[in-house]
Amino acid sequence: xxxxxxxxxxxxxxxxxxxxxxxxxxxxxxxxxxxxxxxxxxxxxxxxxxxxxxxxxxxxxxxxxxxxxxxxxxxxxxxxxxxxxxxxxxxxxxxxxxxxxxxxxxxxxxxxxxxxxxxxxxxxxxxxxxxxxxxxxxxxxxxxxxxxxxxxxxxxxxxxxxxxxxxxxxxxxxxxxxxxxxxxxxxxxxxxxxxx
Length: 196
Fold this sequence. Notes:
Blueprint: H1 2-14, E1 47-51, H2 56-65, H3 69-77, E2 78-87, H4 94-109, E3 113-120, E4 123-132, E5 135-145, E6 149-159, H5 161-170, H6 173-181
Antiparallel strand pairs: 1-2, 2-6, 3-4, 4-5, 5-6
């Protein structure tokens, strides 16, 4: 599960670098990948089901008020961050395996470019980017360890990797968790800290 947590935090950090967000329906935005059809199994012990889209502007405003203008600018330009991640019970899960295959096939057929690909036996970690002309408009992370965990993350915006790496070096996972906890109970966001 450590790989899963690292992947989720890394993907959320990736979502913090962007350029101006387009004023269009999210489903029509370049770089958007629909994750809503993916069902999280009832048997999953650990689940991260995160949609930061509704709170990004408020988070940017709060960062600006806290004096972090670079974070505020980045957050204000992100169009969407969507995460679906869960633990697997150790047995084979054909639905999860099919979801991984469907997403990776779609990325390939829709012209996404692999940025990172790591395969160790059946475990894969893939980070792919989507360009709208010369502008990076989407980033997709798929991390799958059969019998252990799976993570899907889609980030939509006018993305810039240089800004990402700068922000990632300034933000650690504890600060990100604190930032997200501030929105517990707002916009339908619920945080369950009972397992800590």
